[in-house]
Automatic annotation (TrEMBL):
GO terms for molecular function: calcium ion binding; porin activity. It comes from Litorivivens lipolytica. CDD domains: OmpA_C-like (cd07185). The keyword Cell wall biogenesis/degradation does not apply. GO terms for cellular component: cell outer membrane; pore complex. This is OOP family OmpA-OmpF porin. The keyword Signal applies. Residues 250-368 form the OmpA-like domain. Gene3D superfamilies: 2.40.160.20, OmpA-like domain.
Length: 370
């Protein structure tokens, strides 16, 4: 019987692994404890049950899990009969919910060994159905409550199991893409004759005789955006607006800049790749001291409305705080408003759409006269 149980466990684990070849989610290892109740015909007392699980999340909505359970229930009427119960099952999980709370439904098939000391063994095939809820503390740790009805198909007896546990997520969330082969390097050609080949020349058709940099673009010594060979005012102070000849620009016009920062799910921390967006706004505000900014925070529709409202406000406040503390912008020039899920720019039915909706936006305008 022990051999039969071991073979069943290995078969279930192999099936779980093969089902996850194309999986995109993390692995989760879980440990829990629960209470198992038995159908009256088993003549067994309720018993504490230890549960070990390994789960692979296939997508945002689906997961597959292998669970092993062990307990030692007492016989209700005979103190001389001790039972040792080993159970294993392969379960399919369907997740619902938002960013932290994730309810799920579960269904599975497994095998159980009842080893009655002095009264023989009993091996049964078991099907289970139920569900629960997972609470995500962060990207790695989560807590979980689970309740199942377990039917022994061979004897038509139904038991119950309620468990509470913790889980740790690990591994890559997506398969790493294969590196693309390096393209063949074409023969160099220099159409404009500036000494920089066409494959690296970022400024094609440079006039003959103009001094260029390594990218094939004309030099701009004073950094005003006008190449030296066109610049009639070659020593313009840094940051000054100039006309097409490189001289002081006397014109009233509207300058505008837009910032958009996207956030991770359930996070108000500015991702590293968007720090440049914040810095861009800070430079604009420093350049045009009379401009004020309204910073709008948004979220996707996952979770409760009130929570999303608060989360979007935290995101807007995070960008405002970065402008004040990191770049020295006066807080009185900044207003942060959280709109929650009220103003989506994409569908909340897809992962990419939800990602676009988790954002902070600011549009700034200035009337410039020099």
């Amino acid at each position: 019987m022990k051999k039969t149980f071991a073979v069943s466990i290995l078969a279930a684990a192999a099936a779980g692994l093969s089902a996850n070849v194309a999986a995109e989610g993390p692995w989760r290892a879980s440990l829990g404890v629960g209470l198992q109740t038995f159908d009256g015909e088993w003549d067994l007392d309720d018993v504490a049950t230890g549960v070990i699980g390994i789960e692979r999340q296939l997508s945002e909505d689906w997961g597959v899990e292998f669970r092993y359970m062990n307990s030692s229930p007492d016989h209700k009427y005979n103190d001389n009969i001790d039972a040792d119960l080993n159970q294993g099952s392969l379960d399919l999980l369907r997740y619902y919910g938002g960013e932290r709370w994730k309810p799920y439904a579960a269904i599975g098939l497994g095998h159980a060994e009842f080893d009655f000391d002095g009264a023989g063994d009993n091996a049964v095939t078991q099907a289970n159905i139920g569900g629960g809820v997972r609470y995500l503390f962060d990207d790695s740790w989560s807590a979980r409550f689970d309740i199942r009805a377990i039917n022994s198909l061979d004897v038509e007896q139904t038991d119950g199991l309620v468990t509470l546990g913790v889980a740790y997520a690990f591994g890559d969330s997506q398969a790493k893409p294969k590196p693309k082969p390096a393209p063949m390097k074409p023969m160099e050609k220099d159409t404009d004759g500036d000494g920089v080949g066409d494959t690296t020349d970022r400024c094609a058709n440079t006039p003959i005789g103009v001094v260029v940099n390594a990218s094939g673009c004309p030099l701009d010594t004073d950094g005003d955006g006008v190449a030296d060979y066109k610049d009639k005012c070659p020593q313009t102070p840094a940051g000054r607006q100039v006309d097409e000849t490189g001289c002081k620009f006397v014109l009233t016009r509207t300058e505008q800049i837009r910032m958009e920062v996207n956030f991770a799910s359930n996070s108000a921390e500015i991702p590293a790749q968007y720090q440049a967006e914040v810095a861009k706004v800070a430079d604009f505000l420093k350049k045009f001291g009379g401009v004020s900014a309204v910073i709008e925070g948004h979220s996707d529709s996952s979770g409760a409305d009130a929570y999303n409202k608060t989360l979007s406000q935290r995101r807007a406040d995070a960008v405002k705080a970065a402008l004040v503390t990191r770049y020295g912008i006066d807080a009185s020039r900044l207003t942060a408003i959280g709109y929650g899920e009220e103003r989506p720019i994409a569908s909340n039915e897809t992962r990419e759409g939800r990602k676009q909706n988790r954002r902070v936006v600011a549009v700034l305008k200035a009337e410039v006269s020099e």
